[in-house]
Write a structure and sequence with these properties.
This protein is an alpha+beta fold. The chain has one helix at residues 55-65, and strands spanning 21-27, 34-40, 46-52, 73-75. The radius of gyration is 13 Å and the shape is globular.
Length: 76
């Protein structure tokens, strides 16, 4: 019964306002868990979008947000 955990094949773009939000990755210092999301530039709130498990997930997140991996801000 592995049909519950299939990976989505189509990459859907994330709609965000570049004037108000910035794509970022929030990483845990203790566990190393990484989550991709949008950082509100004004308030500093972080909206989680995708779990980043490996480099493939990181590339997918970059593709969805339309930024390069070097442009991503990492928050600890």
């Amino acid at each position: 019964m592995g049909f519950f955990f299939k990976r989505k094949s189509a990459v859907q773009p994330i709609q965000y306002d570049p004037q108000r939000q910035q794509p970022a990755i929030r990483k845990s210092i203790c566990t190393g868990e990484a989550v991709g999301g949008l950082l509100d530039k004004r308030s500093g709130d972080f909206h989680e979008i995708q779990l980043i498990r490996d480099e493939r997930d990181r590339q997918e997140f970059c593709q969805r947000t339309g930024v390069t991996p070097e442009e991503l801000k990492t928050i600890y």
